[in-house]
Every structure is written in C-alpha cells, then in structure tokens.
Design a protein that fits this description.
Low-confidence stretches: 1-28
Helix content: under 10%
Mean pLDDT: 87
Distance between the termini: 70 Å
Strand content: over 45%
Bound molecules: calcium ion
Order of helices and strands: EEEEEEEEEEEEEEEEEE
Number of helices: 0
C-alpha cells in the first residue's frame, strides 16, 4: 500500500517520504522563490474617524437600521437605493408626491449634544425649481425633544431657489436667512453642514455649503430647550410644495467638530 507519510525530521523541514515496499523516495518541496526585497510602500493615509464623530452612515448597509426613526408621511417614500450615490454604491432616497400641505420623508438619529455639526451630501434629482414664493423644504434639522432648534433647506424666494437657514433664539423663530453667495439646482451633489451651539447668550448657528461658510448667526440664546437630542436628514417639512421631490442623501455624519467635504 502506498502511503504519504510526513516524517518529523528536525531538519530539513517539509521533507515527505513516499513509501512503497522497500523503496523510499524523498521529495523536497519546490523551493519558493525568494521574495525580492521591495520597499515598504508608504501607507496611504486612511481617513480615521475623528473621535468627535457621534454617528455616521453612508448607507452601504442598504438599510436604515442604524437610525432611531424613519418618518414618512402619506404619499412619501424613503429607501436605500443603488442608483445615485456620493460614496460607495448606495444612498438614501426620499420622495414626496406634492400632495399635501406638509410632507415628510426623513431619517432621524437620537443624540445628546450641546454643540453639534450635522453634515451630509444631498442631491435633488427632481422638483426644482420650486413653483411659488415661499415653497420650501428642509434637508437637515436639529431638534430638542419636539422643538426644532435649527434647520437648513431650500426655499423659493424672489423667483429663485435659495439655500435657507433658520434657528431659534429663546423660543422665537429667527430667519429665514437666505444664502446669497450660492444657488442650488438639480443634478449635483452638495455638501451641506449645519452647526449649532448651545448657549444662553453666545449661541451659534452656521451653514457650510461645499466647505464654505455661507451663513453665520451669532449671539443667539440657544439655551432654552437644552441639548440637541436628535438630528434629521432627508426631506423634512415640505411646505406648499406641489412639485414631486426626489432627493438623495449620502455620507451623513454627526460630529462634535467640523466635518467638511
Ligand atoms: Ca453611500
Ligand atoms: Ca406651492
């Protein structure tokens, strides 16, 4: 009977014997080619998540399971799709049917921050330009309980779709603050970052578009409602919008420090 036996020779290693009756043949394994010395490549710096990041989702998990809540009013939809994306292959898609006074389709995440940066990439695929003056919807909002603290969105003003920012000072609504330096249009990704800082007299609300500070409100009383307890991304509080909106969001990040594009 032929048997392949591994012998426990101390040296040389990896010698196999092939036994057949009286003959024993030794096989040495084919020597592996000596690897030619190569320079160690300089490691490509990977984007290590900042310790200040509270939450991040690029929707590559193909679902909303990481989120605390999904809010979808009648006629609206929210889903993760592989059609349009900013990072990876998947993004979140939010649609409205233009059929009601106030329409919502968004995801929200519970947080607890006295200063927060909420950053995401957004792409409006359908619905712009808005039809009427003051037609509007929001893409990112921060809340304390049921109270809105600040939000950024798109609003039709003097015939043009503009980035718009609102905030609270005390219990009063302040805004809308329009961005005059950059317009908003269908068919492109925008990096949208909302900054909110809690303070009874030195409160701050800022908006960054594609890394540029485009709106800044300081000296606010943002202390009335306490910390920010949730962050909303998607299509929120569409008001007076008869157009069917189709919005994509990707690379949502909630952080205690500026995120940027
Ligand atoms: Ca993605
Ligand atoms: Ca309208």
């Amino acid at each position: 009977m032929k048997q392949l036996i591994r012998l426990h020779h101390p040296t040389p290693p990896n010698i196999y014997t092939y036994s057949n009756a009286n003959t024993t043949t030794y096989f040495a394994p084919t020597p592996s080619p000596t690897p030619s010395p190569t320079l160690s490549p300089t490691p490509t710096p990977t984007s290590t998540p900042s310790p200040n990041v509270v939450f991040a989702d690029d929707f590559e998990s193909r679902n909303f399971n990481q989120w605390t809540n999904t809010e979808i009013s009648s006629g609206e939809t929210a889903s993760v799709v592989r059609w349009n994306f900013n990072s990876g292959l998947y993004s979140a898609k939010f649609t409205s049917n233009g059929g009601a006074n106030t329409e919502d389709s968004y995801v929200s995440k519970t947080i607890g921050e006295s200063e927060v940066y909420a950053r995401a990439y957004f792409y409006v695929a359908n619905g712009l330009p808005l039809a009427d003056n003051s037609d509007r919807f929001y893409l990112t909002e921060l809340m304390a309980g049921t109270q809105y603290l600040a939000g950024v969105g798109i609003r039709h003003n003097n015939g043009v779709d503009k980035w718009v920012l609102y905030a609270r000072s005390g219990s009063s609504w302040i805004g809308p603050y329009y961005v005059s330096t950059s317009t908003v249009a269908e068919g492109q990704w925008y990096c949208v970052e909302l900054h909110w800082k809690q303070s009874s007299s030195g409160g701050v609300v800022e908006l960054f578009i594609n890394g540029a500070l485009v709106q800044q409100i300081t000296g606010l009383n943002t202390g009335t409602y306490g910390k920010a307890t949730s962050a909303i991304f998607g299509l929120s509080s569409a008001s007076g919008v008869q157009n069917e909106l189709e919005i994509y969001a990707d690379s949502c990040t909630i952080s205690r420090s500026y995120v940027g594009p």
